Amino acid sequence: MAIRIYKPTTPGRRQTSVDTFSDIIKKAPERKLIRIKRKTGGRNFSGRITVRHHGGGAKQYYRLIDYKRDRFDLPATVEAIEYDPNRRARIALVKYEDGDKRYIIAPVDLKIGDKVVSSKGQLEVKPGNRMPIEFIPLGLMIYEIEITPGKGGQLVRTAGTAAKLMAVEGDKATIKMPSSEVRLVSKKSLATIGQVSNPDAMNVRIGKAGRKRHMGIKPTVRGKAMNPVDHPHGGGEGVQPIGLKGPKTLWGKKALGVKTRKRTKYSNKFIISRRKKRSR
Q1: Fewer CB within 10 Å: N-end or C-end of the chain?
Q2: Is residue 138 packed enough to be buried (19+ CB in 10 Å), middle (13-18) or exposed (0-12)?
Q3: What is the CATH number of domain 3-201?
Q4: How far apart are the first and last CA of the chain?
């Protein structure tokens, strides 16, 4: 992926950079692998807004991604690398020998004509191949990791991310997540070798409010810019601090830095060390 930086001809252009999509081969999606994506505007079944700042946006089709890769020991040929509006990573259209086509999340350096295989046994170590963690050499970068064997990849799926396989002991494997968290997963869980494609996605600067609206994200108003009746941070003459011991949400709950994970979460015992807090 390459990033284009515009000349500052207008205030919006001054802060804007865009993806050139130079790695995209095919623009139109496979018709059998798309579904209509209905918009809710952040509203639930009764019409109330339960998620703020959602609404509008460009029309999108949802691409059906094969997270399970359950056609084992059957080579698939990469036919195209495509853009997916629902995620920042690229997706690859693969075709099996019997003519079946599926979308998978593409790793870095995957090219048209490459063969990718998914298996419950040992495979050649190359980007795109998928196998149980117990057969993957230690120290390799992996992504699209299963939490429960057979359920499909749930961990490490966003653009540019990869986990590192640290150790395999007993029936568990130790992996280091992109967040620096170290956790245990079953050694029978499937994982894909490589790093998720489009690592430069994090460097794209939106630049102006209009592009956010195209994404379906509406403006966010600061609480301290509101009246006291509308937000706990509201009120005051001119520019005022929030006037509370700590920041709160619109509904008065503590925000920013508050732990929301349940102490009794069933998977706590699988986390060896938590992610480190990033300094700003």
Answers
A1: C
A2: exposed
A3: 2.40.50.140
A4: 27
Hunting for tokens 């952040």 — which residue is that?
Answer: 42
Query: What is the C-alpha to C-alpha distance for residues 152 and 166, in angstroms, rounded to an integer?
Result: 21
Encoded amino acid at 128, one letter: G
Q: Can 3-201 and 222-280 be said to share one CATH topology?
A: no
User: Does CATH number 3.30.450.20 belong to domain 222-280?
Assistant: no
Whole-number Å distance between alpha carbons of 271 and 16: 39
**Residue 136 and residue 163: Cα distance in Å, rounded?**
13
φ/ψ of residue 169, rounded to 5 = -135, 130
Is the pTM of the predicted complex or chain greater than 0.85? yes
